[in-house]
Design a protein that fits this description.
By secondary structure, this protein is an alpha+beta fold. It contains 5 helices and 5 strands; from the N terminus they run E-H-E-E-H-E-E-H-H-H. The chain has a single domain, classed as Alpha-Beta Plaits, CATH 3.30.70. A 5-stranded mixed β-sheet has the order 4-1-3-2-5, with helices on both faces. Bound molecules: flavin mononucleotide. The site of flavin mononucleotide has 16 residues, from helix 1, strand 3 and helix 2.
Length: 144
């Protein structure tokens, strides 16, 4: 079976006060499941919005996405599609977590935009954005 990847962006529902706990919880569950099912990828959070890219076997990532899409912690889930890939970009990361940082900031600035939403992802800049996320430092959350 061939490797596939999918991605989406969404709007977080919760208040600012619950953000850290919520991301903690998401990553804890994600790392456990993804490790077990050979799923890798990245979760990016900035300004109330999530962007997630998930790689693995097609059936596995689509079933996972079906669950994520109905998760009550976010809404307005915009699915960009699933496609076959030759190799993983996030090999070794069961779910890398990246927040807005100077590197990502510069990525948007160089394109005359401020956010992922205003940029609007398409085939060419999606690949560039993922390259940035591969290179970006992984954010570590303080322990609960
Ligand atoms: C933004 C976001 C990203 C998520 N990413 C993952 C993930 O990569 N892997 C995972 O197993 N769960 C992830 N979850 C959690 C799932 O939505 C869901 O809570 C989890 O799969 C447990 O589902 P269940 O309660 O139906 O068993 C994510 C949730 C959100 C809100």
């Amino acid at each position: 079976m061939k490797l596939h990847a999918l991605c989406y962006c969404s709007v977080r529902k919760g208040s600012h006060e619950t953000l850290l706990d919520e991301i903690h919880d998401i990553l804890e569950v994600a790392k456990k499941f993804n490790n077990k099912h050979n799923v890798t990828g990245v979760l990016y959070y900035s300004g109330g919005r999530f962007f997630q890219y998930i790689e693995g076997l097609e059936r596995v990532i689509e079933d996972l996405f079906d669950r994520i899409a109905v998760d009550p912690r976010h809404h307005y889930v915009h699915y960009f599609g699933t496609r076959a890939i030759q190799k993983r970009r996030f090999n070794g990361w069961s779910m890398k977590y990246v927040q807005r940082n100077s590197r990502v900031e510069l990525f948007f600035k160089n394109r005359g935009e401020k956010t992922l939403m205003s940029l609007g992802l398409n085939d060419s800049n999606l690949s560039d954005f993922l390259d940035e996320l591969v290179l970006a430092e992984q954010d570590t959350l303080p322990k609960k």
